[in-house]
Amino acid sequence: MQQQKKIQQQQQQKQQKQQHQKNQAVIPQSISSTKGIGGGILGKLMGAQQRTDNHLHVVRTKRRNNDLAPDLTSGAAGAITSFRERVATDLEKFKSDNSSFVTKVSISLAALTNEVPIEERDKVTMDVFKYVVYEQVEELGMDRWVAAKEPTDFVDEAIIAVYKEGHVPADVLEDLNKADVPDEVKGLSRHIADTQSKTAQR
């Protein structure tokens, strides 16, 4: 493990030296290139533009080197990862418990995002956390479990009930089946009901 760290440090030092050498090669070119440009306003403008381009090139290469490995343990990614691990652990316990047929996963957006920087909070929405729960239910339940969101009073909180196969209440199944019906079928059934009621009134 320590040898790998030493190798990585050596590689980073080599990259930094190479980058420094490139930067040193770029800077004199920019200075010498402005000498060849004629005087006047246009010449000064062209020289300034070339210097700016060279400096931006240096900044971009430094930034690319720093952004090679994103951190999945902090910020928005860290919040999602830790929530996924917690849900997976809870569902594994639920799976191994043969006497339990329903479990509930609670989602509190405020609690889950309190460590996330403000500029990253748009990445961690309620829909993202609900998706994580449904994904884990599908994965661990092997498509035999049913997950249904229960009604709550608050927008930033949700409770998702997870039922094992054969233990789903009838009203939950009915609600899930209603949600699966396409809008065209719903409109057609309304139209049929309306025409039947008009016929009965005549």
Q: Could you explain the architecture of this structure?
A:
The chain has seven helices and three strands. The chain has 202 residues and is mainly alpha-helical. It has a three-stranded antiparallel beta sheet. A hairpin with a 6-residue loop joins strand 2 and strand 3. Helix 1 runs antiparallel to helix 2 and helix 3 (75-96) runs parallel beside helix 5 (126-141). It starts with a helix and ends with a helix. The model is unreliable at 26-34 (pLDDT under 50).
What key phrases describe this protein's structure?
7 helices, elongated
Summed up, what is this model?
It is built from seven helices and three strands.
Please outline the helices and strands.
Blueprint: H1 2-36, H2 40-66, H3 75-96, E1 102-108, H4 109-113, H5 126-141, E2 146-150, E3 157-163, H6 170-180, H7 183-201
Antiparallel strand pairs: 1-3, 2-3
Helix pairs in contact: 1-2, 3-5
Indicate the percent of residues in helices.
55-70%
Mean pLDDT: 74
Low-pLDDT ranges: 26-34
Oligomeric nature of the chains: single chain
Tell me what portion of residues adopts beta-strand conformation.
5-15%
Number of helical runs?
7
| Computed CA radius of gyration, to the nearest angstrom | 30 Å
